[in-house]
Amino acid sequence: MSATAQGARRMPPGLDRLRGRIDAVMAEAIEALRTQGPEHEHPLIGRVYGWLRHYLDCDGKRMHGIAVALSHLACGGDEDAILPVAAAMQLYHHHTLVHDDIYDEDAARRGWPTAHQAFAGWFADRGGRQEGAGQVFSGGAMRRGAIAAFAYGKICRALAGRLLLESGFEPAAALDVARALERHEFFDNAAQLKDVFHEGDEMPSPQACLDNAWLKTGRLFELCAYAGARLAGADRRGTEALERWAGQSALAYQLQDDLEDLNAASEKGQGRGVATDLLHCKPTYLYARAKALAEGRDRESLLAWQAGRTSGLDRGDIIAILARSGALDDCRSEVGRCVERAGAALDEAGPSLRADWLPPLRDFSDYFVSPAYWHRPLAASRPAAALLA
């Protein structure tokens, strides 16, 4: 690979530097929990605390934390001060993914075992029953692994709250951010409930899928931007511009995520497998657009797949229909429009944002949907048994 190609695959240096600093704060908080947390010497509880260490090694790019930090710096804030809040929002996001993996019964994320799979394996090694392997609520070791993972996610959430509340910012500002985070819980859970309601059922309209993508992803990034701006004492114009920038960047990411679900070389394909969303018939913008655009036998095949009548169809057939219908091209175009709207929000902010931080904000949006993000090689995972030894 040429030096130019290698550079194109790297995270922008300014973002990567923030990523490293956020990881350092998380590592310190995790080690304190592991060595001093309540009941840390218990054979299960200690391992639940210790499992957090894998999060530092699985090649995540900390985009939620970086959104907090960039927003704070763009409003004239101090980098050292905002890092605990950036780490808090990153851990909060991790907690949502842990529970999402349980709901979806995913076995892996970025090539590493999901929390419930890791703990199910640990319980099985201790002599737990293994019937219904892979099905979260099947009883035996899988059931106990799921319970351990739910608790693990709640611990991540509590650690995030502690980092935020102990960050040292002016109490009224920190309380505003904490309130916003609690409000977000309602939106996040509403999105999850809508997803499970529509899974394998009547597919919502493309716009309804976009709205739910905002609930799941866009709104949390808007909250990250709000946290950084509020804690820097930003004015309303700057705060709202950053919220729009973050929300549109995140919506672009979520749509790109739908596309990368079909790509074996992507982070999603490497880490979870190809077409996992398609196999579960998740209500995505991509699938909804295909259903709106496809005609004749192609449309009938999409409806049959959605209804679970898969005889004579496989994922390759459905992916081909997505391409023929124009839905893939349409989704790619919508990704570009979201990135353009993110940049326009920054243009409209005027002097409310520091000009020297606008380039990193734009780098963030571009990187989030780029091959450099989605097609990077992932860190090799270690067996869960070794991590939980």
From TrEMBL:
PANTHER family: GERANYLGERANYL PYROPHOSPHATE SYNTHASE, SHORT CHAIN ISOPRENYL DIPHOSPHATE SYNTHASE. Keywords: Magnesium, Metal-binding, Transferase. PROSITE patterns: POLYPRENYL_SYNTHASE_1. Its cofactor is Mg(2+). This is Polyprenyl synthetase family protein. Belongs to the FPP/GGPP synthase family. The keyword Transferase applies. InterPro entries: Isoprenoid_synthase_dom_sf, Polyprenyl_synt, Polyprenyl_synt_CS. It comes from the Bacteria.
